[in-house]
Amino acid sequence: MALDLPTSHMMLKTEDTFTGRMFDAINGMLLDMLAAIARKDYDDRRRRQAQRIAKAKADGKMKGRPEDAQRNEAIMDMLRKGQSWNTITRATNCSRSTLAQLAKRVAPAH
User: Fold this and answer.
1) What's the confidence (pLDDT) of residue 81?
2) HSE (CB half, 13 Å, CA atoms) of 41?
């Protein structure tokens, strides 16, 4: 984001329409250039971050949050007893996606 373009101040001082249009074009070009540079910088940072995460995972330094086995076992017991998903999510404060993953573990293999 460019808050202050030097050519904007020059536009205030000119009364010539041609010069005003030139400064308009220059300002537009500068904003486009600054936007392109900002986007490239953003993409570079995202790419480098992804590389660092991949390296950390490969080195075994980034394993994610460990599973709460005790809570998950209690949730699976509730599922086995036939309690509804809404009851379980209210009681355990777990997400429906977590509940879906645990329901797959409980479901008998066909």
Assistant:
1) 95
2) 7
Burial of 88 (0-12, 13-18, 19+ CB in 10 A): buried
What is the mean predicted confidence (pLDDT) over 32-58?
95
Instruction: Give the pLDDT confidence score for residue 13 in this predicted structure.
Output: 65
Are the C-beta atoms of 55 and 74 separated by less than 8 Å?
A: no
The residue to which tokens 């205030």 are assigned:
12
| 106 in Cβ contact with 76 (< 8 Å) | yes
Residues for the chain: how many in total? 110
C-alpha dihedral (83, 86, 87, 92), degrees to nearest 10? 110
Phi, psi of 75 (to 5 degrees): -65, -45
The CA distance from 79 to 106, in Å, is 7
Q: What gap in Å lies between CA 94 and CA 102, rounded to an integer? A: 11
